[in-house]
């Protein structure tokens, strides 16, 4: 009888662990900062790395937080290392700025087939950032492929170099066509 009870307890414990794994949710505040940037919570909101506070030694502490930016067609996503590398983004970045779109090396990686065709989460983020500045990422990528210098000139003349964009500006832009 004791062995039947023990077996039932082990089976119940195993089932409990299995169900917790199946129904596990991504909560930004629970993610380590090394996985935070470019992740999307179970609620469909983007995760972002924020400065937390200055520690006694004078170093900065970082924390993962949930933004108010909702991603329409993606949920529960932690970006892959392959996409982070292919797109030239940094998981440890704090905030996001349209200034990165002015960097020719960054734009070349973002517009590369490895990134643009295979990493819809990162492309969507930068698509919306560019759209908030009045520029279509697809057009920027085409210009970058044809003439990288001209792409930078067009981008700078659009006003995108004015500074960081608040999150509400890139949350309602139309979806990119991949």
Unreliable spans are: 5-22, 160-178
Strand order of the largest sheet: 1-4
Q: Helicity level, as a percent range?
A: 40-55%
What's the shape? Answer: globular
Helices and strands, in order, run as HHEEEEHHHHHH
In DSSP terms, counting alpha (H) and pi (I) runs of 4 or more, how many helices?
Answer: 8
Q: Which class do the helix and strand fractions yield?
A: alpha+beta
* Overall mean confidence score, pLDDT: 77
Could you characterize what this model shows?
Helix 4 (104-111) packs across helix 7 and helix 7 (137-146) runs antiparallel to helix 8 (148-157). It is globular and about 50 Å long. The longest helix has 21 residues, at 2-22. It starts with a helix and ends in a 21-residue tail after the last helix. It has one domain (28-170). It has helices spanning 2-22, 33-36, 81-87, 104-111, 113-116, 120-132, 137-146, 148-157, and strands at 39-40, 45-54, 60-70, 77-78. It has 178 residues and is of the alpha+beta class. The protein has 8 helices and 4 strands; from the N terminus they run H-H-E-E-E-E-H-H-H-H-H-H. The strands form 2 sheets. Strands 1-4 form a two-stranded antiparallel ribbon. A two-stranded antiparallel sheet has the order 2-3. The chain is 43% helix and 14% strand.
